[in-house]
What does this fold into?
Amino acid sequence: MERLHQWKLALTEAANLSGYHFSPGYEYKFIGEIVKYVSNKISRQPLHVANYPVGLQSRVQQVKSLLDERSDDGVRMVGLYGIGGMGK
It folds into this structure.
């Protein structure tokens, strides 16, 4: 019963949050303002890249060949997946 009460409180709090209101104009500017606001709120950790990465060149070549960067016939998409913290 206590858990249900906590859920109700959390949902009520979420429902009462105010958001951004888009007024007529350029949508890309509106989205840019939201991105700027969120970026200022999050803590950014610098990305560490090894001084001498090992084994990347062959992987880069594989991805390049799959994407066929010279081709001009459409959109390409790359998905990266795996266990968090493994350096994808």
